[in-house]
Design brief:
Structural class: alpha/beta
Order of helices and strands: HEEEHEHEHHH
Distance between the termini: 59 Å
Number of domains: 1
Number of helices: 6
CATH class: Alpha Beta
Largest sheet: 5 strands, mixed
Length: 197
């Protein structure tokens, strides 16, 4: 006695789910903000760049470094970062904040400080209803230089080329922030980070 099976009922369902995921992902891409604030967090020096994409061109509206003053306590440094970022968010009204993922130092205290700065950045964005996106350092280097192990100077040089800047960004902190922005605009499936939840 022969048995026949009709597995076709499974295939269309899987196909529909796959198409549905693609439609959802494409909708997310279309909805992504065209103006962002990219931040390279650091307790003593935080680089930032306000960037906007029009058509296929990325423009830098503002960039700089938030530097702490000698003798400031960690809470005072965090408060200074929060105030400057809040001012930038209010002035330029970006649709997204882009941060670098936390990476682990051998020095545990440095890792904790970096996490605190990221928390302050996320707080400033959350209070304004702005979404936070996050990228690993290797992903950023791969997007800008083509090599996940590239050095900061290489990233700085390529940021200048990719953005058509007349000169190199003023600091490595700024070039790292701008590289984050470039990665965001290049990424076809940029996921909202849940790191700061």
């Amino acid at each position: 006695m022969s048995r026949t099976s009709t597995p076709t009922a499974i295939s269309p369902r899987r196909s529909w789910k796959r198409r549905n995921r693609e439609i959802t992902r494409n909708a997310d891409i279309t909805a992504r903000p065209a103006r962002i604030l990219a931040v390279d967090p650091g307790i003593n020096a935080t680089g930032y760049g306000v960037m906007e994409q029009t058509s296929r061109r990325i423009s830098v509206l503002a960039s700089g470094t938030i530097k702490s003053r000698p003798g400031q306590s960690p809470p005072e440094k965090l408060a200074g970062i929060y105030e400057v970022l809040s001012g930038l968010l209010d002035r330029f009204a970006p649709g997204a904040l882009v941060l670098e993922d936390v990476f682990y130092h051998k020095n545990v205290r440095s890792t904790l400080r970096l996490g605190e700065v990221r928390g302050v950045c996320g707080l400033a964005a959350a209070r304004r209803g702005i979404g936070v996106y996050s990228y690993a350092s290797r992903r950023v280097k791969k997007a800008t230089v083509g090599n996940g192990s590239a050095g900061k100077e290489q990233v700085r040089s390529m940021v200048r080329v990719l953005l058509g800047l007349e000169e190199d960004p003023e600091s490595l902190d700024v070039s790292d922030a701008l590289a984050l922005g470039i990665t965001y605009f290049q990424d076809k499936a940029c996921p909202v980070s849940d790191v700061l939840r």
